[in-house]
Amino acid sequence: MAQEKPETPAAPVKAPAEAVETRAATAGEQQIRMNTASVKSSYCNMVNVTTTREEVVMNFGVNESWDRGASEYDVRLEHRIVMSPFAAKRLALMLGKLVSEYEGRYGELNQGN
């Protein structure tokens, strides 16, 4: 049986030196200006979510254990995002819509992938 090759994380993408504005229309047709001058991109292949009554905490990291049969995995945490449950619900709705659109274009995603 051939051994799987580890994924190579994508190289970080640097924001341009100048601020770039993007505009996104929301349901109420309000315009949101997004300044991308200090945006950073990171590769993450693992997420863990916990919650309290007042906040949702998402930890993003990189799984550095490539042996799928291992009993332990080494994960290097890179980012922690803390948000209100209201913001988390909006995120969940947006991700659900995005995944549905993706599957409509490219086919169903399986949990094991």
UniProtKB/TrEMBL annotation:
<dbReference type="InterPro" id="IPR021857">
    <property type="entry name" value="DUF3467"/>
</dbReference>
<protein>
    <submittedName>
        <fullName>DUF3467 domain-containing protein</fullName>
    </submittedName>
</protein>
<feature type="compositionally biased region" description="Low complexity">
    <location>
        <begin position="8"/>
        <end position="19"/>
    </location>
</feature>
<feature type="region of interest" description="Disordered">
    <location>
        <begin position="1"/>
        <end position="27"/>
    </location>
</feature>
<dbReference type="Pfam" id="PF11950">
    <property type="entry name" value="DUF3467"/>
</dbReference>
